Amino acid sequence: DVEYAELLADKFDIETLKVNMKEINEPLENRLKNIDIEETERSHWPQTKIPTPNPAEQNIQTRLRMMTLYYIAEKKNYVVMGTSNKSEILTGYYTLYGDGATDMRPIGDLNKTQVWELAEVLGVPEKIINRPPTGGCRGDESDRDEKEFGISYEDFDQIYESINNNDDLSKFEEGDVKRVKELIDAARDKSDIPTFKIAE
Amino acid sequence: DVEYAELLADKFDIETLKVNMKEINEPLENRLKNIDIEETERSHWPQTKIPTPNPAEQNIQTRLRMMTLYYIAEKKNYVVMGTSNKSEILTGYYTLYGDGATDMRPIGDLNKTQVWELAEVLGVPEKIINRPPTGGCRGDESDRDEKEFGISYEDFDQIYESINNNDDLSKFEEGDVKRVKELIDAARDKSDIPTFKIAE
Predict the structure, then answer these.
(1) Which domains does chain A have, with CATH numbers?
(2) What does the pLDDT look like over A53-74, one tens digit per residue?
């Protein structure tokens, strides 16, 4: 990931700051793993229907990154820009209070297909555009977004926009349409914090 | 704080789990302090008008606690309950993605005055009710909420409810009314993440 980040920064002449948090991530993970609790099994992410092993460990990484970004932002009076796109937000493909925790979402209204198109226009290196999207938390390809969704971004985006525009859905596979609806329904309330209300 | 938590747990027979994160907090804080950045001065919290020293250090604590709570919740399939009350939410008196980061807010629609009243009714130990509210991040009394607000919770709550009900405000000090409006205005958008929208 660092390699790709540097490629991009070079291309657009962006100032970078490299902070290695590995030395903290390990003892932190070990400390948390040592908490004396019994794990409850479950088959999908909390608040979404994405099938996955328990995300507790990988969420440590994304939340530690959030803390680091906010530490720097608070010291420098900066704003933390979020990289979530519309497809990720709709499917809940982010860690709550991890990579989903930012001050602003510049590409949050562009779906993944549009992000790819924009990247072409801007001249983002092909190597980056062609890289299969992954969560990037497991050090291998096992957390590829589309594998976890059970549908490609291209299909997801087309079907979602068609649903949204009340277009005819008969040209799509029935199973794919069902899956898109499932993913969106499951993630709908992911970032809401319900507050108990006093009855009037 | 541990002492008070145990007092409460004993009183209501609540199961507790004590996790000491101090051994991680120190190296984490040191690691972040070693990042090679120049600090920008500012006189108040980001997103609020509460005057305070730079909160970056104390936010490490609250975010580390959030991570710990979510680690346990994700392992046990639990929900993280937030302790924020209406007065704290209105004034933004919480750490974004720290203690403000929860799944649910059972007392989020009760102002601090009502929380005190409820505590009396429930029989919460007087020692806890009478303790002056503090952020509890600096190990002393310097982060007392009301000192940082420049107004007491009692006055804040009365004035806020009066504003909200379009009541006559002339019975309050002019400066206090101004302060309440300032605090609320400054914190209004604290937990929103603006998303850039594609023009229609």
Answers:
(1) 2-187 (3.40.50.620)
(2) 778 888 999 999 999 999 999 9
